[in-house]
Amino acid sequence: MKTIFVPLILFCTIALPALGELTDSDLNQIRLIVQEEIKPIKADIVTLTTDVAVVNSEVANLKETVNSEVANLKETVNNNFDTIQNNFDRQNNIIIACIGIPLAILAIAATVWGILANRRSRKDRTLEKQIEVLTQEIEVLKQQRIVNP
Fold first, then answer.
1. CA 122, 127, 131: angle at the middle one, nearest 5?
2. Within 13 Å and on the Cβ side, how many CA atoms surround 98?
């Protein structure tokens, strides 16, 4: 038991000075130390705020530049599409001309040929009728000769 009391008393005597309170001078010293430590942090904060302001202005400038570039790109693309559309229109007209003109010539030729063929067939019909009439007359004449020799 003695061995327990001796270290216990020893530890209690060591712990007694730790129960003391902070004085005003101690608090002032602590405040000075904290303020000295805060000064570089405040300087860093000021630097960071100026850097952020510069970055924000650069971002705004970049946004304006990008917007103007996008507008220019849109205009260029629209102009290129108009040019391509005009080229397609021109090519369509050329294709229509290359197909339409020969077809028109063929249609006119077929119509003329049909008209000429129809005229020939009318002539042929009239000639065939005349031949039939003449053959009938010849037959009639042969029969008359046979009957009246």
1. 150
2. 6
- The SS3 of residue 16 is helix
Eight-class DSSP state of 20: P
What digits encode the pLDDT tens for the residues 92-147? 888 888 898 988 899 899 898 888 877 767 777 888 889 999 999 888 888 887 77
Spatial separation of the C-alpha atoms in residues 67 and 36, rounded to whole Å: 47
Amino acid of residue 6: V
Residue with tokens 């599409």: 81
CA 117-113-103 angle, 5° bins: 155
pLDDT (tens digit per residue) in 74-92: 999 989 888 888 888 888 8
Cβ neighbours of residue 16 under 8 Å, at least 6 residues apart?
A: none
pTM value?
0.39
Backbone angles phi, psi at 136, to 5 degrees: -65, -40
